[in-house]
Specification:
Largest sheet: 4 strands, antiparallel
Distance between the termini: 60 Å
Helix content: 10-25%
Number of strands: 7
Strand order of the largest sheet: 2-1-7-6
CATH class of the domain at 44-130: Mainly Beta
CATH architecture of the domain at 44-130: Sandwich
Radius of gyration: 24 Å
CATH superfamily of the domain at 44-130: N-utilization substance G protein NusG, insert domain
């Protein structure tokens, strides 16, 4: 003789206030994520060669930069609000694989060639370093 197990359907115990709490909580999490975690669009790009600032440029243009480094030349493309490392003589190509950078605080570092590209703006996005 087997007894059927009682049905534990948790949806039957929910009230309309529970649903409202879940919806308001989801809206709060989404809005906090957008305001705290995501950064604003960058306005300038700063390129470093070694420990020196090579150039600081506005992102409101279309331009190609050639930056000399110990291994060769790194090519950086600025394209109306975004920037990327197009080519680099470094063996692993990590900075090239990062693709387009658009948010203030984003950085592409071509370490063997000692070239870095950083986007500047009024505020940077929240990350573990801000903790």
């Amino acid at each position: 003789m087997s007894k059927s197990a009682p049905c534990h359907n948790w949806l039957h115990g929910l009230k309309w206030g529970d649903g409202l709490t879940v919806v308001l909580g989801a809206i709060a999490v989404f809005s906090l994520f957008n305001t705290l975690w995501l950064g604003e669009a960058a306005s300038k790009v700063q390129v470093r060669a070694g420990s020196e600032i090579f150039t600081t440029q506005s992102l409101n243009q279309q331009r190609t930069l050639e930056i000399p480094g110990p291994l060769g030349t790194t090519t950086v493309i600025i394209d109306h609000g975004r920037v990327r490392v197009a080519s680099d003589p470094s063996p692993r190509q990590y900075c090239v694989k990062q693709g387009w950078l658009t948010q203030a605080g984003e950085v592409a570092m071509c370490l063997p060639n000692q070239v870095s590209v950083e986007l500047l703006g009024n505020s940077k996005p929240y990350d573990s370093l801000n903790y």
